[in-house]
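Incident log, support desk, overnight shift.

02:14 A customer reports that sequence design results differ from what the structure should imply. Their input is reproduced verbatim below. On-call engineer (initials T.W.) acknowledged and began investigating.
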């Protein structure tokens, strides 16, 4: 699965708007929309932030694993 599709799926499963996720990333709604729609790349720092926010592993968020229960370890 493409990571953009996964990001949208996770966001929608949690009943969040693009604007709400954008605030977590300190971006505009349009900036986050560009990530989900393939007009901008997801930065590593943003991926780390989303992993912490959703409490999901990076492997799951970027589509390397389909196991949502995969271990999430927050490193300080």
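02:41 Re-run completed on a clean worker. Output:
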């Amino acid at each position: 699965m493409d990571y953009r599709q996964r990001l949208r799926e996770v966001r929608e499963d949690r009943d969040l708007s693009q604007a709400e996720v954008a605030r977590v990333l300190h971006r505009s709604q349009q900036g986050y929309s560009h990530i989900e729609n393939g007009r901008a790349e997801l930065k590593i720092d943003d991926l780390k932030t989303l992993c912490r926010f959703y409490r999901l592993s990076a492997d799951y968020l970027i589509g390397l694993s389909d196991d949502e229960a995969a271990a999430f370890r927050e490193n300080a």
